Structure prediction request, 49 residues.
Amino acid sequence: MLHSLTALTYLPVLKSYVNVFVKNPALPAHPYGKNLMEILDYFDVDLSR
Prediction:
């Protein structure tokens, strides 16, 4: 239960972080981009929303 609540709390923050660092073409390639995408795949986050 606690783990689920924690994930729900931090997923929007993680999504915002990814939107800034991965989707912003003005920024250089983020060194952790690949790891972030792996994390998103693990949590099954849909970035198109």
The chain has a mean pLDDT of 65.
